[in-house]
Amino acid sequence: MAAKHAHHVALTAAHSQYVTRQVAKGRYASVSEVVRAGLRLLIELDDARTDPTATTEPRKRGEA
Predict the structure, then answer these.
(1) Please, are residues 58 and 44 in contact by the beta-carbon 8 Å criterion?
(2) Measured between alpha carbons, how far is 61 from 45 in angstroms, rounded to an integer?
(3) What is the value of pTM for the model shown?
(4) 52/16: higher pLDDT
(5) What are phi and psi of 23, to 5 degrees?
(6) Is the pLDDT of residue 28 over 80?
(7) Exposure letters 26-58 (e unless 16+ CB within 10 A, then b)
């Protein structure tokens, strides 16, 4: 997916190694996909904190 909004993100060495391993394993196609997956989880967590009655089902890909 082409980025609509590009941002530069600085990672610690440990985070960078983790992201690199995830892409190398084929779990994600790119570093951007790993970051987007993490952001989706944060959004779900924030939603749950804001509205404890909100569904715990994962969002569909592309939502958020």
Answers:
(1) yes
(2) 16
(3) 0.70
(4) 16
(5) -70, -45
(6) yes
(7) eebeeebebbbeeebeeebeeeeeeeeeeeeee
Alpha-carbon distance 21 to 15, whole Å?
10
Are the CB atoms for 11 and 19 separated by under 8 Å?
yes
What does each C-alpha distance from 42 to 17, 21, 26, 36, 59 come to in angstroms?
20, 21, 22, 10, 12
Length of the chain equals 64
- The whole-number pLDDT of residue 5 equals 87
Are 16 and 9 within 8 A, CB to CB? no
64 within 8 A of 40, measured Cβ to Cβ: yes
pLDDT tens-digit profile of 34-50?
999 999 999 999 998 88
Residue given tokens 């060495």 in the structure block: 13
